[in-house]
Amino acid sequence: MAALEEIDGEQADPIWPALVEAPMMIDRPLGGAPRGPEDEFVFWAN
Hints:
Layout: H1 2-10, E1 21-25, E2 41-45
Antiparallel strand pairs: 1-2
């Protein structure tokens, strides 16, 4: 986790705020909603 925080700290600040943060399923078709605690997803800022 420390390596991810280090990489994140090196990134430039966004020029404008994200309009939407939506969950994107991992290994599931787009538009698929989480179905259980075992489903994996990330929040995608767009």
